[in-house]
Design brief:
By secondary structure, this protein is α/β, with parallel strands linked by helices. The chain has 5 helices and 5 strands; from the N terminus they run βαβααβαβαβ. A 5-stranded parallel beta sheet has the order 3-2-1-4-5, with helices on both faces.
Amino acid sequence: MFSKIVVALNDLPESQRALRAAIELARASNAELATVSILGDIPAYTSFAIVIDSNAPNAMREDQRRAHGELHEKASRLAQEYGVCAKGSIVEGREVQAVIHFLNDERADLLVIGLHQHDFYLSRLWNSVYDLAQEAPCSVLGVH
């Protein structure tokens, strides 16, 4: 049914539910599984930290990379428990465009994303989910 499944990862519980669904689908269809996360912008308050330590933005970026790397490692271990090999990637750029570019590069035929409860804090994420669903070059599965 699917040959290349991509699941979007972050540190929210919805993402972990999407990962589990993607693993099940990859196992059932004998598909490749890739995980992708987006390295976001450094917070605006970083400009204040530069006054104290000019290396602060670099350290913060490295912390982000390390956290994303750990997220992909955990996903890979979980997938291996189910007999699925998962390759992790960290992309940079604007959320939707970075994922779309990744999907095209990977020739994915399914994107699995976690759906978040709509509230004030997460309303920006809903816009990203909608945009991904509209622009993705493949099928999109939203997991609650």
